[in-house]
Amino acid sequence: MKVTAFPRTEQGSGASRRLRNAGQTPGIIYGGAGAPVNIKLDHNALYHALKKETFHSSILDMEIEGKTEQVLLRDFQMHAFKPLVMHIDFQRIDAKQKIHVKVPLHFINAEISPAVKLSSAVISHVMSELEITCLPKDLPEFIDVDLANLEAGNTIHLSDLKLPQGVTAALHGTQEDPTIATATIPAGKVEAEGEGEAGEGSTEEKK
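Above: the chain sequence. Below: its structure as tokens.
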């Protein structure tokens, strides 16, 4: 995905405010072998790009004054109540160094899973993204979570996922195999089924 930026010489909060009033967003590129570079981007184009999943989890081609370098989106700040991007940070990518990045999880085949088809269970997405480590060339846009064999009452853990080649999960804390998704039968449905079974038993007894 291509992003166009321009060098920014203006510094300070007053200069940033003037940029925003002119429809631009201040930002910075850092990391790698080069020095940090202050940049500015067209706000409207940036605002719409931020709505795209790939903008957050893909390597971006950043063009500045005719030169292109690869970067990752690292952070951005929004206005407290206005649809306004206040500032944005990008990190340069070294093709030979591994990166740490969060990628979205795409849940597939829920409609054909035994949990949904046979038990009308509710599938809860415990995690919506996964932090991974990989070389830039191996970075996936997303990771699929296949729910085709999920049964009611069961859980999908990280160890159940098929990560792309060259990709490893970056785990934190004490949780070695975190939960990704669960399938549970709604309480009301369980109670209704229980009452139905009890009613059938009473009928048999009357006979």
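Residues 2-92 form a domain with the Ribosomal Protein L25; Chain P fold (CATH 2.40.240.10).
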